[in-house]
Amino acid sequence: MKTIFRALATICAVALCGCGYSRIGYTVSEQQTVEQCNVPIKKKAHFREGEVKILGTVIAHDHYLNSEECDIEAVLRRVRVDACYLKADLINITYDEQPDYNWSICYRVQADLLKFTNPAEAKSIEPDPQYEWSKVQEQGAISREKGKNAYWKALGKGIIGGMP
After folding, report:
1. Residue 35 to residues 24, 70, 80, 82, 85, Cα–Cα distance (Å)
2. Average per-residue pLDDT for the chain
3. pTM passes above 0.90
């Protein structure tokens, strides 16, 4: 019985890992569709007081409910959709953590969705090199593959570890 319980606990823990998503300071109507736009992404950008307005904050974290849509590409795509919805000029990542593939296969991020008070400044903003969308897509593909491998590795350890 102990063997079965350990194997089932491992399967549940691995299969139920996923990305939680919290919005702070705004809501999004799930019925409203938004055109995908190319809001640039920067990490820890600093601005003078009054230069930008924070429209809202997004937090993507582990919530242990599913293991899909939590690689860097999926998470940043979702953040970008929210930024488009709010008509933000910039996504400013204030915290991020890459998956370690032992305890989490999910990319975790906290980001502010910003609007410039001077619209001309928004036109000149370029993304940080690591957030060029082609690079994010590459990282996402690599992360998904590593996540699958971690899933099967943990599943195997749980089943084998649960055997007498």
Report:
1. 22, 21, 10, 10, 8
2. 81
3. no
